[in-house]
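Entry for the shared binder. Reason: the reviewer on the internal report wants the predicted structure included alongside the sequence.
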Amino acid sequence: MNYRVQPTAQVDDSAEIGAGSSIWELAQIREEARLGEGCVVGRGAYVGTGVQIGNNVKIQNYALVYEPAELGDGVFVGPAVVLTNDHNPRSVDPEGKQKRGGDWEAVGVKVEEGASLGARSVCVAPVRIGRWAMVAAGAVVTKDVPDFGLVVGVPARRIGWVGHSGVRLVASDDEPGVWLCPQSGAAYVENEGVLSAR
């Protein structure tokens, strides 16, 4: 075994765990889930059946990643984050009968490469969190977040842009539509509400 699992964690035999990954106390990895290389799953975190996780992903303590979520490479999932999978949740059907797995259709959250979800944020499926986007702590995401988008609040709304380093970008004084990272100096170009690296 080329990964580490603490004795109190539950990892289903059918789950695929990449080399160099660590699964900490009381975490649960369900059937057919796939974790890439170098992942960290924190204490008490939950990874649902068939969830697909890329390389170098960090899922912090008590985060809940329900199927059929997909997390790209380098994603950060903060403590107590929830990725939901039912847009219209009910325990029972209209006749009062308890709903089972086949009684509803799971919808997923897709988190693209490098994106970060702050502590206690909630992503209400189905939504897509764009590449390198940042969801602020406590935000409730109910619609798609663009690449490099910085969203806050309930419901979450975009208030700016972040770059690859996670620092909020500032508008260039010299070039309209150009945003600069104050930490790295990297430049990004905004065109019709879409940001891309220069």
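Summary line for the report: Residues 163-198 form one domain.
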